[in-house]
Design brief:
With about 375 residues, the protein is mainly alpha-helical. Helices cover about 75% and strands about 0% of the residues. The protein has 18 helices and no strands. InterPro entries: TPR-like_helical_dom_sf, TPR_rpt.
Length: about 375
């Protein structure tokens, strides 16, 4: 069993004033007022943490970076190891969002150590979850699959719906990326049910995105797009800028798989602009890949496409996204095979290019 979802990153008085479904503009305004009136270093640390998380989810990464460091300094001044762990969790999550995966690992590892020593079970669990998510995004499934399962069991044991949704979505994503679509769909749909019952709108939005992804791969683009439209409404209501951009990228993925290349091109361009505004390199690179593939399908010159793929391969290698790099190599192989014959590289029906499905490139956890 599980209870209603809650947001443990909103601490002290903020925990009473804010909920898991509070819009992030509201969170930001409330947290700033709390920071301005804070009477102790610990109160400043807690308020700055909420400022950091609101800015991160709004896509304001520079402000988020300043705020989590402010939180950490105040927590250190207060001598509170748990508050320091929460600040480092926020910093590590921001680093992952920005594509700095080695930095994310370092910050989250230190957060785990501090939380473990402090006895704060939630800070420890969230920091471990962040490490697991970072490894999964990098494609290191062997290293993190067991940790995802353990975190899911801990969430169930303590009735924490939000954490269950995160862990279950991560496990589902690994099944999806390794081709077990039936299991992935089962887990994503269960995540939707849990998030709905727990009144976790953010978790529901991310889980709907996962369901839509699998339905699209299985040849149901219209159902997938309807679910993504529902999730998009949630993202806009809660000011989830990063989640909205990933939603748009998934809409483009669905359009691409359905052969609607012009629509996919336009939607990838929209997602690319959104990620660029947020300075989110992982989303930028994934959107650029989709845009490159869509343009190639529409007949773009193969030489220009191959040049872009070479640049993207370097970006994915630098960021550490193994699965995304494999997608680049697979599409390059398609182009080179087509170019070796008499067919037009950009037109799969003429070239006989098999349609490979594009993976989602990883999901941000519901708790992140």
């Amino acid at each position: 069993m599980y209870g209603k979802a809650f947001a443990p990153e909103y601490q002290g008085e903020l925990g009473a004033a804010l909920g898991v479904n509070s819009s992030y503009e509201e969170v930001l305004a409330t947290a700033r007022r709390a920071h301005d009136t804070a009477g102790t270093a610990l109160e400043r640390a807690r308020a700055a943490l909420a400022v950091a998380e609101a800015n991160r989810r709004l896509g304001r990464v520079s402000d988020a970076g300043r705020a989590w460091r402010d939180s950490y300094r105040s927590a250190r001044e207060a001598g509170d190891a748990a508050a320091m762990a929460w600040a480092l969790w926020s910093g590590g999550t921001l680093a992952r969002q920005c594509g700095a995966l080695p930095l994310a690992r370092r910050l989250l590892t230190h957060a785990v150590e501090l939380a473990d020593g402090s006895g704060d079970r939630l800070a420890h669990g969230y920091s471990l979850a962040g490490l697991a998510e970072t490894g999964r995004i990098q494609g290191d499934y062997a290293a993190v699959a067991e940790l995802h399962e353990r975190l899911l069991e801990e969430g169930r044991a303590h009735g924490e719906a939000r954490h269950m949704v995160w862990a279950m979505s991560g496990i589902a994503q690994m099944h999806r990326n390794t081709g077990d679509y039936a299991k992935a769909l089962e887990l994503f749909e269960e995540s939707v049910r849990i998030a709905t019952d727990a009144d976790d709108a953010r978790g529901r939005a991310w889980s709907l995105r996962g369901v839509a992804d699998v339905l699209s791969v299985q040849g149901e683009p219209d159902r997938a797009l309807a679910l993504l439209s529902e999730a998009e409404t949630i993202c806009r209501t809660m000011d989830l800028a990063s989640a909205l951009a990933y939603n748009h990228k998934m809409q483009a993925n669905v359009q691409y798989r359905a052969g609607r290349y012009a629509s996919a091109r336009d939607t990838y361009a929209l997602a690319l602009a959104e990620f660029s505004d947020m300075h989110e390199p992982r989303g930028v690179a994934l959107s650029r890949l989709g845009l490159t593939k869509s343009r190639a399908r529409l007949g773009r010159d193969a030489e220009a496409t191959l040049a872009e793929l070479a640049e993207l391969e370097r970006d994915f290698t630098r960021i550490g996204l193994r699965h995304a790099r494999e997608m680049v190599l697979a599409f390059r192989t398609e182009l080179l095979e087509a170019a070796g014959g008499d067919a037009i590289p950009g037109r799969p029906e003429a070239a006989g290019i098999p349609e490979r499905t594009e993976a989602s490139g990883g999901m941000v956890p519901a708790g992140a």
